[in-house]
Specification:
There is one protein chain. With 465 residues, the protein is an alpha/beta fold. It folds into 3 domains: 262 residues, 3-Layer(aba) Sandwich (Rossmann fold), CATH 3.40.50; 130 residues, Isoleucyl-tRNA Synthetase, Domain 1 (Orthogonal Bundle), CATH 1.10.730.10; 48 residues, no CATH class. 47% of the residues lie in helices and 15% in strands. It contains 15 helices and 15 strands. β1 and β2 form a beta hairpin. α9 crosses α10. InterPro entries: Cys-tRNA-ligase, Cys-tRNA-synt_Ia_DALR, Cys-tRNA/MSH_ligase, CysS_C, Rossmann-like_a/b/a_fold, tRNA-synt_1_cat_dom, tRNAsynth_Ia_anticodon-bd. It is found in: Cytoplasm. Keywords: Aminoacyl-tRNA synthetase, ATP-binding, Cytoplasm, Ligase, Metal-binding, Nucleotide-binding, Protein biosynthesis, Zinc.
Length: 465
């Protein structure tokens, strides 16, 4: 099957054909770094990480860019509250973002450009728009002239009349039209600023992505992505800015993930129902959150709830336990020939996994293929004799699938059986010495790693959750 993806621009599933054979240029809008990221931010981060992983899995060379908005009104206000400079605040939350991404097993982008490192290209981009009549200056601010770009609204499938009468637009007497948007903001007293042909100021939000895509990926890219809330106005404005300069499509495919709700309510600051990634990661395994996010198709709204997390945790435990059992059995297996029937079945399951991912990155059905592999693995494990080659084949497919989904516990995070036995013996010694604090500390450590202890008449037994 050929990879097909839903293109927001055409509202159809389209066969993926990169601009350059074997290579993919992909840009996803990153965070405004004035706070810790919440689980709503986590959904696009996880999904587009999987898109990037899968494209790599099927053989593409992917250049993946995710920007940092490190100066805007939110950062300026937050820096005033905390007593930091804007740069200090941005540095702190970029570091926190990267920690949270690592926690979620999200691989760093090829490039993570910062707006403040790219002011020259941004100012040059705005200046080109002014010179070509697509932008105008008024009072030190620069605005994009939407009436000049005849295709404005083509991504969100709206026209200027609908935008004028159907959407609340902030009134600004300096604009020629209400739909015009800011490219450069004149600095207020005391604000951080950069020098420009229009005076001291800083860029608007939309222009940064156009400039960064142009600088790091070129005039046209293969995939541009983000949350559905970015379709309008952010991505619409990016298209207007970029295509006015280049005369070429900014992106061939536009991908947008749907919203994440909290207990069936839209997540919002007014409701106070945002959940930070770093807080939820203290309560559940990060892999569980990834598994939960990927258990629903990215174009469907996803409801975040305790029940949903519990179900995800149970499903992931089933997969993880199977992998653990395979590892244990592999350690004692004989080097016999590969089982041809198992090999054929594993190939069927792999083809199913690829077919589902090729169908607009259908991760829920791809996870079903993973469970089919669990079923086959458990059947094999019930046999009295099984070859090491057969077990390695199955383990290899689990690793392949996980290279895309990223849902299994990282091996460096797992305790080996002999390490567990050693800790249990140390705990027994601590109990004999009545060092209850150390005994409890070891139990807590094992519990954190998903190891549960059971006191029985025959002694202590342990099991992985």
């Amino acid at each position: 099957m050929t990879l097909r993806m839903f293109n927001t621009m055409t509202r159809e599933k389209e066969e993926f054909k990169p601009l350059e054979p074997g290579k993919v240029k992909m840009y996803v809008c990153g965070p405004t770094v004035y706070n810790y990221i919440h689980i709503g931010n986590g959904r696009p981060a996880i999904f587009f990480d999987v898109v990037r992983r899968y494209l790599t899995y099927v053989g593409y060379e992917v250049t993946y860019v995710v920007n940092f908005t490190d100066v805007d009104d939110k950062l300026i206000r937050k820096a005033e509250e905390t007593g930091e400079t804007v740069q200090e605040l941005a540095d702190r939350f970029i570091a926190a973002y990267m920690e949270d991404m690592k926690t979620l097993r999200i691989e760093p982008a090829t490039i993570h450009p910062r707006v403040t490192d790219n002011m020259e290209i941004i100012i040059t981009f705005i200046n080109s728009l002014v010179q070509q009549g697509f932008a105008y200056e008024n009072g030190g601010d620069v605005y994009y002239r939407t009436s000049r770009f005849k295709e404005y609204g083509k991504l969100s499938h709206q026209n200027l009349d609908e935008l004028q009468y159907g959407i609340r637009i902030e009134v600004d007497e300096r604009k020629e039209n209400p739909q015009d948007f800011v490219l450069w903001k004149a600095a207020k007293p005391g604000e951080v600023f950069w020098s420009s042909p229009w005076g001291n100021g800083r860029p608007g939000w939309h222009i940064e992505c156009s400039a960064l895509v142009h600088k790091y990926l070129g005039e046209s890219i293969d995939i541009h992505g983000g949350g559905v809330d970015l379709t309008f106005p952010h991505h619409e404005c990016e298209i207007a800015q970029t295509e006015a300069i280049t005369g070429k499509p900014m992106a061939k495919y536009w991908l947008h993930n749907e919203f994440l709700n909290i207990d069936n309510e839209k997540m919002s600051k007014s409701l106070g129902n945002g959940v930070l990634i770093r807080e939820i990661a203290k309560k559940i395994k990060p892999e569980t959150l990834r598994f939960f996010m990927l258990s629903s198709h990215y174009r469907n709204p996803l409801n975040f709830s305790e029940d949903g997390l519990t179900q995800a945790g149970n499903g992931l435990d089933r997969i993880q336990n199977c992998v653990t059992n395979l590892k244990h059995r592999l350690g004692i297996a004989q080097e016999d020939a590969l089982d041809d029937q198992v090999e054929a079945r594993v190939k069927e399951i792999e083809a199913q996994f690829i077919s589902k991912m090729d169908d607009d990155f259908n991760t829920p059905d791809a996870i079903t293929a993973v469970f089919d592999l669990v079923t086959e693995a458990n059947r094999v494990l019930q046999q009295e004799r099984v070859s090491a080659a057969t077990l390695r084949l199955i383990m290899g497919r689990f690793r392949n699938f996980d290279s895309v989904l990223g849902i299994l516990a990282r091996e460096e995070d797992e305790l080996l059986d002999e390490e567990i036995e050693g800790l249990i013996e140390e705990r027994n010694e601590a109990r004999r010495a009545k060092n209850w604090a150390r005994a409890d500390e070891i139990r807590d450590l094992l519990t954190e790693k998903g190891i549960y202890l059971e006191d029985t008449p025959q002694g202590i037994r342990w099991r992985r959750k």
